[in-house]
Structure formats: structure tokens, C-alpha cells
């Protein structure tokens, strides 16, 4: 489905307002490094947060949440059971969910889990460029075959280099993919949006990406995948740019960033610059 | 035991000062989402924090700590052993401890653990209204039977609706119950205090409730359960109200709130408004 | 190897600049209480952070990281396998790594793990005075036998009382030991540096010590152990003192401290006061 930019902006507006109005629950299974920031970012945009580790609790969250966020960071042994059961529950109930393949390439369990996720078709994949390329490769999607350069959890590839991989992933899942970078890319396999803003400080704090994934889940509870991903990306770019203008160091930036997430109006978010093109 | 308001205020004063003077150790088994805020809040009021997950470490903390905090969030498989052994150690040694039944209703392990906690009679139960109602119901205490409306970790019930349940729980444990809400309720089954203050931002950050539980444990190391619960509730209401007047967004609020916890004088805390009535 | 103070200061300068230039990856296995602060402090000084829990992931981090940080807080059952395998991988590959024996004395697993660490000779041990004394004692290093007074995770001993233990540990490992306290001590078994600065607020926030360990690891990726430990200690003393002058309460202090870590120039860090003497 193609849309005009003005239509998209209207839907972004609606998503921001609906999240504030409905206070949707968006549960997470996410890493211990940034779990607090994920929850606070979700609350700042109007969502409700809940985090679990156990298999039946993941299924429980899947059942009651408007959307769910599965982040592959700091895996525990129990994730071998928790992640597949939760993803299956989400898939079978046709509930929106967000996958963050952080750390792809590190360890056997993560590889095993990420391979399994292919069948459960995450509504939205949120990752940096290297992770998107690596995931498309792992899932055997022909994406032009730029080899990924993952190192730890940081991207070594440009967002542009991940365009084909992102489109291929979105076409496979039938959902959307959001690639975080200096200019962010969001695609549903048909359209590609490039979103501008943010701050260089977002790479100087831990969890900008993870918490964006959590916020995508909040919006996925009230909007379709492409709009949810673009709304979250836009509010991050808006709040990041505004915070950047207010502070000069990373810890102050994190505080100002969360404050601006909270303060951002629907009009602010919809006015965050982006361009649309065909995939 | 009934007390006059002035007596209670004097004991609140003493609790604030004793915590600062004694630097009591209040160990925790608590969730990964808000664990950092729990520790920092405990330090801000003069306590010493230590967090563990393993069974013998829980017993160790129980032995050396002045009081202990058991929070049911983000359960790991090892909690099946850790929580009962720690609670039993606390009960058998007649040491004060605080139970936070966060997430009650989510998952089989949490239900199993919370049922077991009945026999170990937590000195103080700290929860929101929905959780208090659900716990009284789970423990078979006739509390007027308002059905709980738990959804994830947020309360859907009013504090008033939880009064009977709170009183019933306090009578069962012989300790105190603190119900967090817009107006907070603290009861020992005989007296009911309503404490005022705080800020609407406390629901816009994650961990206001969890960290309150940790601070209750600090005061429980130096005061009786009812006074410990009311002192912690009062200092939260004082610091929350003061921070609310200083900032206009949630991340700034969290910083200002912790700062004000640290700066609060014993007189400030004792002067935080509350009313006392018979249960 | 003995060095003149000016030489040492030049090497501190170089370490600060190299960390900013190289963005070295310093992976961690660390506790859930302060894991976010560890990562943010590592980013603030120019490093790259990644945290894991599983055995093969620990080995993976050891292989790709410039240095690795192993912190014994909040042990999970899987650590029984993860910590020894990771430490062995680091030792066998002759990669620098930092041990933080936090919580020494609490629980059987921690004792077992810390005993095993003796053979893997951590490049740098970062701890408070009580922990350093307890570790030297556990490893059977004759250190003058001041009995340690560990209580939970806080030091009950003075840094001076830990001098012999620190020197003995450094001689055993052939690396360096950093003892945190009001005046910090860093030794390689030959030289002893005393570093000044910091803030009393560093004991009023959780994680000053843990995050220092993570920052030591960043510098250990670009400098020898003694210089890495002294550089990290110096930048902490510089940023702590500067933040102390800017704020009056602990949560504001944490924000200002991280901001000042980020802003500290190589010249600032090298100019942080220290004295050198022979061990």
C-alpha cells in the first residue's frame, strides 16, 4: 500500500495521540543493560511496561499486551524456551511484536533463536545496519549480499548499505523494518522512509536502540507496523535533536532526551523531517 | 497498639535519623528493571544496599542485613529455591522483611511463590491497590471480596478499594501494609494512616513503587513495621512533591526526586501530611 | 619497571587519547545493579561496551574484545560455567582483563569462582580495601594478615590497611591492583601510586566502583595494567571532584559525573594529583 506523505503524517499524529490516550501495555523480554531505559521510554510516550524472563510469563504478556518487544541482548539459559514460546504465542494470536536482533553473531543460543524467529515473522524488526544485513543473510533472504561487519553490539555498516536487506526482511515478514543510523530508514518492503534528526549523543549512551525498540512496540499496539516504526523513529529524532540543543554531554543528554520524549506533541512528531520513496 | 499523631511523628523523626546514623544494610532480591533505582534510593536515605539471586546468598543477606526486601518482579528459575529459602531464613530468625508482590497473577512460579509467602508472614507488604486486593484474595483472607483488576504491573483499583484487604493482610502478618496510590494508605491492622504528597510523575517513571519497597526495608532495620512503612511513604511523598515543584518532565523528576530523598530532613519527613484513624 | 612521574603522566595522556581514538571494545560480565552505569561510563571515556551471561558468549567477548571485565556481583547459576571459561580464554589468549571481587565472602559460588581466578591471573584487580584484603587472604598470599572486615558490598577497612595485600596480589598476577577509597591506591607490586580527588557522593550512588572497573578495562585495551588502572582512577578522581563542585545531591552528581568523564581532556586526567613511591 502506497501512501502520500500527508497521509503518513496524519497517521503518525494519530499514533502519538492514541498511545497517550490508550496507555497500551507493551511487555518486553529485553536485556539487563538497558531494561530501565526501555521501560522509562515506553512510559514517556504513554505506554505501560512490563518485563519478564520465564516462558509462561512471556506467553502471558503476549496474551495481555497490545504488542510485545523481544530483544536478544544478555541472553539467559531460560531464553532457549522463553523466546520461542513467546514468539509463537504472538504469531499464533496475530499480535504485533518487535524483534531486536542485538548481538547477532555472538554465541550459539542467539544464533539458534534468531533462526527460529524467521518462521514467527516479527511485525517490526528494529536494528542497526550491520544487524539488519546479518539477519537477512542468516534468514537466507537474497539482499544483494553485502557482507555484514558486526562487532559486538555496534554497527560497522552504513544505513544505505542495509537498504536491500531491510526491504527483503520486510517483504518476508509482511511487516516493517527500522534501521537506526545517522539517517534512519524505515520500510515495509514497498515504501522506504528516511527520517532525520537525532543526536550524536545517542551513540554515547547505551540503550538508544533498545529503548527505541520498546517504543516501537508501544506504537505497534495502536498503529500498523510501518507507521509504528516511523512514529517511534520520528519521536526519537525529534526528542534527540531537541535534547542535543539543550545539553553538551551524554548523561545530561539522556535525561533531556527522555524529558523531550514525554513533552513531544503529536504535531512535533509528525513534523519531524522524512522523505518517502518506493522500495 | 494505638498511638497519638504526635507520637507517630516523633517515631518517624527517629527512624529518619537512625537510618542516617546507623547506615543499616538492607539486602534485596529484586527485579532487573528497577534494581539500580532501588539501590540508589536506599543509599539516598542512609542505608546500605546489596542485591543477590542465589539461594545461599539470599540466606546470607538475611543473616547479616538489618532487614531484607523481596520483590517478585522479573523472576528467574532459581527464584523457585531462592525466595522460599530466604523468606524462611528471615522468618525463623525473626528478622524484618518487606514483600512486594509485583506482577501477581502473571505466571505459575510467581503464584506458587506468593502462596508460600503467607506462612513466612512478611513484616511489611508494599504494593499497589490491585496487588493488595489480589494478595489478600490469594491468601484466603476475607477482605470484603472486591475483585482485583490487575493488568501487568499497574494498578487498576483505587487505594480506598484496597482498605479491607490491607487491614486483613496486616492482621494476618502482625506487621504492616503500605498501599501506594494518589493518597497512600499504611495500616498495621489497628490504625490506618493516609499519607499525602508525591507527584503524578511517579507513575511516569518506572520503579517508584519498587524503590519505595527498598526504602521501607531500610527503615524496617531501625523501626517497627508500621513506622517503617509510614516513614518511607512520607519521605517519598515529601521528596516527590518537592521534586514535582522543581521540574516539568519525568527523567528530570527522577533525578530531582532522588536528590530530595537525600536532602530530606527528619523534620521534613515528620511534617509530611497524614491522618490517622482506627481500622 | 620503575618510572618517573612525568613519564607516567605522559602515558596517562596517551591512554586517554588512544581510548578516544580507537574506541576499543571492552566486554563485561557484570552485575545487574550497576550494569547500565558500567556501559555508560565505558562509552563516556571512548570505549565500546557489550555485556553477556552465557559461557560461549563470554569466550566470544574475550576473543573479540581488547580487554574484558569480570565483576562478581549478582551471580546467576550459569556463572559457574561462564566465569571460569571466560577467564581461561582470556588467560590463554594473553588478553588483558579486570577482576572485581565484589561481594567476596557472600555465598559458596562466589568463593569457588574467586578461588579459581587465582590461576588465571587477572591483569588488574579493582576493589575496595576490604575486598582486596579478603582476596589476598583467600589466595593464600602473605600480606601481613590484616583480617578483612567485609560487610555486604561496602568496605570497612582503610585503603592503607590494604597496601600489603594489594602489593602481594599485584606480584602474584604480574599485573596491577587498584584499591578504591578516599585516597585511591594503584600498584603493580613495584610502584605504589596514591591518587587524589573524587567526591563523597561516590559512596552515595551505587556503582562508582563497578563502573570504574569497566573503565579500567577500556584503558587496559590500550595501555599496560598499571597505567590503565591509574588512568581510570585518575579520570574518576578528576570527574568526581569536578562534579562535586557542581551539584549538592547524589542523583545530580551521577549525571554530572558521567558528563565530566566524557568532557575530561587527556591533560585534565594527567594533571589529577598522585604521588608515586616504591612498594
Written description of the protein model:
The model of chain A has no long low-confidence stretch (mean pLDDT 95). Helices cover 50% and strands 15% of the residues of chain A. Chain A is of the alpha/beta class. Chain A has a nine-stranded mixed β-sheet, sandwiched between helices. Chain A has one domain: UDP-N-acetylmuramoyl-L-alanine:D-glutamate ligase (3-Layer(aba) Sandwich). In chain A, β6 and β7 form a beta hairpin. Chain A contains eleven helices and nine strands. Chains in contact: A-B, A-C, B-C. At the A-B interface, α2, β2, α3 and α10 of A face α5 and α10 of B.
* CATH C-level class of chain A: Alpha Beta
Strand order of the largest sheet of chain A: 2-1-3-4-5-6-7-8-9
**What's the structural domain tally of chain A?**
1
Round the mean pLDDT of chain A to the nearest integer and report it. Answer: 95
Classification by helices and strands of chain A = alpha/beta
Helical fraction of chain A: 40-55%
Biggest pleated sheet of chain A:
9 strands, mixed
Biggest interface between chains:
A-B, 33 and 33 residues
How far apart the termini of chain A lie comes to 12 Å
Order of helices and strands of chain A: HEHEHEHEHEHHEEEHHHHE
Report the strand count of chain A.
9
The proportion of residues in beta strands of chain A is 15-25%
Which overall shape of chain A is indicated by the principal axes computed on the Cα atoms?
A: globular
Low-pLDDT residue spans of chain A: none
Instruction: State the CATH topology of chain A.
Output: UDP-N-acetylmuramoyl-L-alanine:D-glutamate ligase
Assembly state (oligomeric): homotrimer
CATH superfamily of chain A: Ribokinase
What CATH architecture label of chain A applies?
Answer: 3-Layer(aba) Sandwich
Amino acid at each position: 500500500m502506497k501512501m502520500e506523505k500527508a497521509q503518513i503524517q496524519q497517521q503518525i499524529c494519530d499514533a502519538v495521540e492514541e498511545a497517550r490516550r490508550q496507555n497500551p501495555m507493551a511487555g518486553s523480554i529485553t536485556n539487563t543493560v538497558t531494561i530501565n531505559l526501555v521501560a522509562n521510554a515506553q512510559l514517556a510516550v504513554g505506554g505501560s511496561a512490563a518485563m519478564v524472563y520465564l516462558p509462561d510469563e512471556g506467553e502471558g504478556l503476549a496474551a495481555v499486551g497490545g504488542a510485545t518487544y523481544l530483544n536478544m541482548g544478555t541472553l539467559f539459559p531460560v531464553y532457549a524456551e522463553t523466546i520461542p514460546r513467546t514468539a509463537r504465542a504472538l504469531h499464533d494470536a496475530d499480535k504485533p511484536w518487535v524483534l531486536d536482533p542485538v548481538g547477532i553473531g555472538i554465541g550459539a543460543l542467539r544464533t539458534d533463536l534468531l533462526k527460529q524467529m524467521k518462521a514467527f515473522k516479527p511485525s517490526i524488526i528494529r536494528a542497526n545496519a550491520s544487524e539488519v544485513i546479518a539477519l537477512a543473510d542468516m534468514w537466507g533472504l537474497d539482499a544483494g549480499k553485502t557482507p555484514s561487519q558486526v562487532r559486538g553490539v555496534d554497527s560497522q555498516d552504513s544505513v544505505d548499505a542495509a537498504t536491500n536487506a531491510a526491504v527483503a526482511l520486510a517483504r518476508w515478514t509482511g511487516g516493517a523494518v527500522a534501521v537506526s543510523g545517522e539517517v534512519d530508514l524505515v520500510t515495509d518492503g514497498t515504501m522506504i522512509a528516511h527520517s532525520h534528526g537525532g543526536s550524536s549523543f545517542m551513540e554515547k549512551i547505551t540503550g538508544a536502540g533498545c529503548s527505541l525498540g520498546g517504543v516501537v512496540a508501544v506504537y505497534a499496539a495502536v498503529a500498523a507496523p510501518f507507521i509504528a516504526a516511523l512514529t517511534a523513529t520520528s519521536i526519537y529524532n525529534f526528542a534527540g535533536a531537541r535534547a542535543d540543543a539543550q545539553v553538551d554531554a551524554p548523561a545530561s543528554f539522556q535525561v533531556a532526551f527522555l524529558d523531550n520524549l514525554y513533552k513531544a506533541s503529536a504535531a512535533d512528531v509528525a513534523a519531524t523531517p522524512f522523505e518517502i520513496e518506493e522500495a
